[in-house]
Structures are given as C-alpha cells and as structure tokens.
Amino acid sequence: MFTTYKEALDWIHARLRLGIKPGLKRMEWMMDKLGSPENKIKTIHVGGTNGKGSTVTYLRNILEAAGYTVGTFTSPYIEQFNERISVNGKPISDEELVKLANVIRPLADELEETELGGPTEFEVITAMSFYYFAEMGKVDVVVYEVGLGGRFDSTNIIHPLTSIITNIGLDHTNILGNTYEEIAFEKAGIIKEHTPIFTAVKHPGALKVIEKQAENMKAPIYRLNKEFFISEHESKAKGEIFNLTTPTQTLYGIEISMIGKHQTENAALAVCAAEYLNQEGSFAISEQAIRDGLKNAYWPGRFEILSDKPLVIIDGAHNEEGITALVHELSTRYHERNIHIVFAALKDKKLDEMIAKLDQVANQISFVSFDFPRAAAGEELLKISQSSNKVAVSDWKTYLLEEIETLDSTGMLVITGSLYFISEIKPHLCKYLKNMTISL
C-alpha cells in the first residue's frame, strides 16, 4: 500500500524502465479485472502527431462552456504530473492519485507474473484514468489523447462517440514507421466502425491511408479543405481570428487565444466534432458555447508568452512539424526582434532538420543539456548547428536567468524543444519572472 504521494509517483515513474511495449493485451487484461470501466464512460478520441493536446483543450472548453463536466487524459504533463488526469481542467488531487495507484498496483504485480509481462508507465496511468472516470470522478464525457501512434496505443480500447486525427508528421519513426503513409496507418488505427472521424491531415499519401481505413470501417470522414474550411485568417497580438465553414454553417470571426496559424486547424477540428455531437443529440452545444470555449482555451507550453517585458516565450516544439510552426510564427510576428533561441531535445528526434530550421531564424542559439534518460547533450546539438552565434550550456538554470537579465526591448528569448524540458524549466522561469515584476 502506498501511503504518500511520493511513494505512488516513484512507483509509476519506475515503470519507465519497461520502455514502450505496443499492444492492447495488457490493457484488456487489467480492464477485465477492473470490471471494464472503459465501457462505463462516454469518450472522444484524439490522435495525430502535433496538436493533440491543443485540440483536446479546445473541445474540453467548448463542452465545459455548454455546461458539461469534462474529463481529459493527456500527456506529457507541463506543470504537474496529476494534470494528465483532469476534470474541467483541474488535475486530480494527490490523495486521489495515491488511491488510484493502490488500485492498479496489485494488478500490475499480478500481470508481471504472466506471459504478457508487467504494464508500462503509460499503461498504468491509462488504467488509472479509466478507473477514475468510471468509479471516482464521474463526468459527462472524457476526451482521451492518444499517447503514441494509435493502433496499439493503450487508449485504443475505447469505443468513442467520435475520433479526431490532427495531422501526420515524421515523429517516433523508430516505432511507427519511416514514411507518412506508415505513420498514418498507425494513427488511423483509432478509427472505429461507423464512428465519424475528423481530420486535418494534409499530406496526400497520409490522407489516402486515413480515407481507406475510414472506408473499411464505414466511418463518415470530415476533412480540412474538403468538408470544412478555414478562411479570412488573421493573426492578433495574443491569438488568431478566422472564419470557419463546417458541413452545416459558417461561423464568422471566431477568436482563439492560443497563438499560431496551426491552432486554427486544431480549433476547427474541435468545432466540427462539437457540432456533430450536438446534431446527433449526445450534447446540447450552442454557437455561443463554441465561441466562448475557443476563446477561453489555454494549453500550457504551446507558444506561451510568459512575459511581455522582457519578452520570454516557451514552446514545446519537439519535432520537425512543431519547429516548422514555431519558425513560421517567429518569422512573421517577430522578424524585427533579435531572437535568442534556447533549445533542448531528445536523442531520437530528427535533430539535423530541426536545428537547421532554428538556425534560419535565430540571431543567437543556445543548446542546453537537461536531466532526462533520452536527452541529447548540449554539446551534441551544438555540433549539428551551422549558426555563427551558438553556444552549448550545461547549467541552464543560471544561464537562462542571466540571459533574461540582459534582454532589452529589441530582443526576445524563446525556449523550445522537448516537452519534458519545458515542464522542467517552466516553474523556475515563472517564479523568477514574477519576482522580477514585483521588484520593478
């Protein structure tokens, strides 16, 4: 029995040693032992390479604005571990997490003794979420974010009301495949029979794979630029504004507070899914709820402005698609600024292509090491960069604070890369920037 939060969390994290073990048999075994909690809740499934978390939060906020209690399961976390299982955006309590760990621990131990082997960290957390939403924190619906891929992801035991695939990029190629089509095949594994699928995938080959799977599953498919369209997009200082034409109507002047053109696509997916849920009678969602939900939606670590003066931005751009979106925003919004980029990454990413894109927009670039099993050392990243103004840093805490101190009105600091790095640095930066503001 775990008696403290630390004990429970240490046990969960220790399961990282098992790595990634694709397959659903361990999840099905645990769910059977728990009385199939996944069948007791209404769910929505969100997969894709980038934009999953943002799409989840748009949809959650829309449903919440319509008066519903909404659970979410997301990964990784940015500010605290508990946020992975949340209700109306509020993470579960430490006490609840301890209780959940005590429910799942005996199952994990028993499973360890079978030919299936013990559950991974992610499988344990997923099992905890199903039990929580079915037995402890009753909600109207749960929006589940896929962890990795889709077909063999531990969340893929649900039968959702609808599914969403945000986009397809070349990420986790060592597990999911080396081509857009191979990765799309894994992502398309979340498409269920007769269950509508909404997608913003643009790569022709990847989209064809998704269309084929939808056809096989007799699932109605709604595609960006085919069944729904974004127009009249305009970037604002703290967000975006655009028109959205859905299969049933056109919404003019939709506002979102998250920054980036790509966020309009994530928002559009959430709106179309919400419209469908409204039409088929699962939920009553008004246009005002859609507008309010989108405007209120906030997702930490995604082009998040921590401070205006000095200008400090964090962005969890952890793969090539994310870096492309970041570079686009920096070059269009802040081309007159002196841009200092601080970058940290995991070894298994396409680092050469990511760093090449950052080199193009950075006046200065710093590569930092951080404490994580798969993290690349700053010196390794430095060797890849072609920038004439670059440096490798081992002590990021001291370095970042010193750099912030020297920022003037013409400069900006952009900290990007691994979400694990972003989650580690954000509390330190927020505390420092808050003290800085107080002392001014």
Instruction: Determine Rg (CA atoms, Å).
Output: 21 Å
Give the fraction of residues assigned to helices.
40-55%
Shape designation: globular
Strand order of the largest sheet: 4-3-2-5-1-6-7-8
Q: In terms of structural class, how would the helical and strand content be classed? A: alpha/beta
Poorly predicted sequence stretches spanning 5 or more consecutive residues: none
What is the mean pLDDT?
Answer: 94
What can you tell me about this protein's structure?
The mean pLDDT is 94. Strand 3 (85-87) and strand 4 form a beta hairpin. The longest helix has 21 residues, at 419-439. The chain has helices spanning 5-14, 25-33, 52-65, 94-112, 121-136, 173-176, 180-187, 204-216, 261-279, 287-296, 320-333, 351-361, 378-384, 396-406, 419-439; strands spanning 43-47, 70-73, 85-87, 90-91, 141-145, 162-165, 197-199, 221-223, 229-236, 239-245, 250-256, 304-307, 311-315, 338-344, 364-368, 390-393, 411-417. The relative contact order is 0.11. Helix content is 42%, strand content 19%. The chain is globular and about 60 Å long. The protein folds into two domains: 5-296, UDP-N-acetylmuramoyl-L-alanine:D-glutamate ligase, CATH 3.40.1190; 304-439, Alpha-Beta Complex (Protein-Tyrosine Phosphatase, Chain A). By secondary structure, it is an alpha/beta fold. The strands form three sheets. An eight-stranded mixed sheet has the order 4-3-2-5-1-6-7-8, sandwiched between helices. The protein has 15 helices and 17 strands.
